[in-house]
Amino acid sequence: MACRAMNHTRGSVGGVTAENRQAVDTTPRRQPTPQTTGNAGPVRDDATGKGLTQNTFRGTESSRQRTVHCGAATTLAQVHFLRAEYRDALRWADEALEMAERIANVAGLSGPAAIAVMARVELGLPVDAERYLALIEQSLTGGETLQSNSRFAGEAFLAVGEPARAERYAESLRATRRGGRLREAYAAASIGEIMLRRGRFAESERAIGHAISVAKAIGARSVLAAACITGAELAEAVHAPSLGTEPLERAIPICRELRLERYLARAEKLRAGSGPTAARA
């Protein structure tokens, strides 16, 4: 069953030449730009996603561009989250969420709310799950436009034990055809993850294959890594773990290079034979 999704991983991931993608793939075709972050020296935004954003964030503080301030804080939260730096992720998410609520930026609610609820789960902190999920849903139904925010909403629903809401979110992604190919990759990867957790393996396979295909085409390497790992989890769930070997071997170098520790932990568990063997929702 998982063969078609796995076949999408063949070919050269390294064919995405210039190492110019942020960890959250917000600008997949931008050329690399050296940035300076205090005493840390030059940092390229392709490898960490933070060099450019931290400078942008400082600029928004001085110019009081509060919407940009909110977006920059959200991007920092997402990067820290992907790196499994959950305390830093929560700090930036809380700041972005506070700003979004203060200026009634409905479009800016879903990204930080998703990171905040998942970071709290990871840290073992008390979670007012309904508050965060309501903010996510308010943002999404209100016409949320920042493409990277759609990446984490489905995962947030699953993290707090709301698979039915996650499934409704997946259906809304299928029904909504807006945005560019990066949003398309995010949506397909999210649908693949949700359908896997719901035990709907054929639907998961189709979505994962599409996410891999689009992510490879546009050079969205962190989405590619995530989709490959979900594909390997799918192979494990349908008792065909050998089909997950190639996707894992493609995902792991990307995770290491971009420091995507959250994804890397999933991949290494699978490679060690201790990954999920069935849907978890």
Structure characterization notes:
This protein has a two-stranded antiparallel ribbon. The radius of gyration is 18 Å and the shape is globular. It has 281 residues and is mostly helical. It has 2 domains: 1-12 and 183-281, no CATH class; 65-161, Alpha Horseshoe (Serine Threonine Protein Phosphatase 5, Tetratricopeptide repeat), CATH 1.25.40. Helix content is 64%, strand content 2%.
Question: What's the arrangement of secondary structure elements?
Answer:
Layout: H1 3-7, E1 34-36, E2 42-44, H2 51-63, H3 66-82, H4 86-102, H5 110-123, H6 129-141, H7 150-159, H8 163-175, H9 181-197, H10 201-218, H11 221-237, H12 245-258, H13 261-271
Antiparallel strand pairs: 1-2
Helix pairs in contact: 2-3, 3-4, 3-5, 4-5, 5-6, 5-7, 7-8, 7-9, 8-9, 9-10, 9-11, 10-11, 11-12, 11-13, 12-13
Summarize the structure.
It contains 13 helices and 2 strands, in the order αββαααααααααααα. By secondary structure, it is an all-alpha fold.
Oligomer: single chain
* Count of domains: 2
Total DSSP E strands: 2
Radius of gyration: 18 Å
What is the distance, rounded to the nearest whole angstrom, between the alpha carbons of the first and last residues? 20 Å
Low-confidence sequence ranges? 2-22, 26-48, 277-281
* Structural class based on helices, strands and sheet pairing: mainly alpha
Please give the largest β-sheet.
2 strands, antiparallel
Helical content class: 55-70%
The shape, in one word, is globular
Biggest sheet strand line-up? 1-2
**Helix and strand succession?**
HEEHHHHHHHHHHHH
Hey, roughly how much beta strand do the residues contain? under 5%
Average pLDDT metric = 79
Number of helices: 13
